[in-house]
């Protein structure tokens, strides 16, 4: 009985980890898209300044 509960607990943990990792991949893709858009927008502003578009 204890082994069955441990297997079920392990299955729940792995399911949760898989969901979290997939969600983190989507967050990483969204952040990358925003970074690329900001980089391209800054590179094509025509101001000729050498400042960075981000502030960190």
Give the helices and strands, then pairings.
Blueprint: H1 2-43
Description:
This protein is mostly helical and 56 residues long. It has one domain (1-43). Helices cover 75% and strands 0% of the residues. It contains one helix and no strands. It has one helix spanning 2-43. The longest helix has 42 residues, at 2-43.
Briefly characterize the structure:
This protein has 56 residues and is mainly alpha-helical. It has one helix at 2-43. The mean pLDDT is 79.
The number of strands is 0
Helix content: over 70%
Mean pLDDT: 79
- Summarize the helix and strand pattern as letters: H
Distance N to C terminus:
54 Å
Count up the helices.
1
Q: Which terms would index this structure?
A:
56 residues, transmembrane helix, single chain, mainly alpha, 1 helix, Hydrophobic protein
């Amino acid at each position: 009985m204890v082994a069955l509960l441990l297997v079920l607990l392990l299955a729940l943990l792995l399911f949760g980890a898989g969901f979290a990792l997939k969600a983190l991949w989507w967050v990483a893709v969204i952040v990358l898209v925003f970074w690329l858009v900001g980089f391209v927008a800054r590179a094509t502003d025509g101001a000729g300044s050498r400042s960075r578009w981000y502030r960190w």
